[in-house]
């Protein structure tokens, strides 16, 4: 149900990739269900690539800013550094234009909810005298690691392990975000994630896409020095049994979906818990060799598998693989993932451990095999295996490859091993707690209410 209408109007600005747009759009729908009007702005290029382009509800409308690459987006940029610089310069100006456009209407913008990776949006909010809320798309534990680095509390390069950070388990180097454990990798992105704290003292809120029960110690520790509100998990509510209107799915894809019934039709012919779902999200690219090992590991496990291979990676599949697997496996270019994960036929999620995928697996009760690739994924994987105990992490060999035998044995462990049974029980618990957190009166729901009520008070 959409809540009672009032004057509050939020301008939401995700970082322009699928994994950042999904949680921001879900959060926007939650705000709409509480009577807040939301304008979600993404770049012109992304706006034109979106499927569908229609907004999910009267109360959530789409608009566009420019990153200076309206025709080709990020792929047109000379470097990551130059892309981010243009996004900031041209994005700031065009974000301001949206604020101005609504200024003398019945619903002027009251607050900019901006992706933590785009702290310059807070400067735009303050320039126009608006409220500003940072929206963190990664777990609290990861934010707290970056907080420690930014404030010089954790010195780089790391000279001794294990690493101790209040509220977090002891961490080895391989458990740290990739920008830290592969020192010097992606310096522009590392600078971007650290810069989220550059002006955070001026933000009116820090909203984190997690739920309190999942990260009690990390949330408590970080809140003591940097107040935050947990508002997640931002998983489509239809699968959590606490339905919000127009929330059947994320509802916005940047990739072309194979006919959406292809997956569900195929899954409907498979017994409960018999299928391994494999996806590495929207950004990760596996090498030729790694794709080959994964393909033969899946085949060798002899379980059914549904594998998302993005169009850009199809050429890395072993020759004739798709023909040879027959009905044992289905390879698609993109899926409606939350729908797939909620299907009874799925027994395990073989994942890169992106934060949305992790939250979806936890909330939809699917144990995991995790093969982290970069950014926050190694830290998420550490929690999946050792803290939440809902998955196993693959071991990488001396050449940086995860071999087919390792892949096969991790899948077996989750699908039919003793540990797998324990993981399934734990996964049930997390689903229950996730649903409670976002249901009426739950920890995240109360935090969203608190955010909305302050917003309403501040809106003229
Ligand atoms: N996703 C999807 N279909 C796919 C693969 C991924 O809908 O075939 C969605 C997935 O449900 C998640 C998002 O894309 O919400 C990926 O975000 P995540 O943080 O897991 O990874 P990223 O793409 O940012 O690496």
Number of strands: 13
What is the helical fraction, as a range of percent? Answer: 40-55%
Q: Which percent band covers the strand fraction?
A: 5-15%
- With strands numbered from the N-terminus, the spatial order across the biggest sheet is 3-2-1-4-5-6-7
Number of continuous helical runs? 17
Q: SSE order, as H and E?
A: EHEHEHEHEHHHEHEHEHEHEHEHEHEHHH
Gross geometry: globular
Q: Main beta sheet: strand number and arrangement?
A: 7 strands, parallel
Distance between the termini: 25 Å
Bound molecules: uridine-5'-diphosphate
Q: What structural category characterises the helix and strand content? A: alpha/beta
Low-confidence stretches: none
* Global mean pLDDT: 93
Textual characterization of the structure:
The protein is of the alpha/beta class and 460 residues long. It has helices spanning 18-33, 44-49, 80-102, 120-127, 140-150, 178-181, 187-195, 216-225, 261-267, 288-301, 321-325, 337-341, 355-363, 377-387, 404-416, 418-438, 443-458, and strands spanning 9-13, 37-43, 60-65, 111-115, 131-136, 205-208, 229-230, 275-279, 304-308, 329-332, 346-351, 368-370, 391-393. The strands form 2 sheets. The protein has a 7-stranded parallel sheet with strand order 3-2-1-4-5-6-7. It has a 6-stranded parallel sheet with strand order 10-9-8-11-12-13, sandwiched between helices. β9 (304-308), α11 (321-325) and β10 (329-332) form a beta-alpha-beta unit. The longest helix is centred in the N-terminal third of the chain and has 23 residues, at 80-102. It is globular, with a radius of gyration of 21 Å. The model has no long low-confidence stretch (mean pLDDT 93). The site of uridine-5'-diphosphate has 19 residues, from α1, α12 and α13.
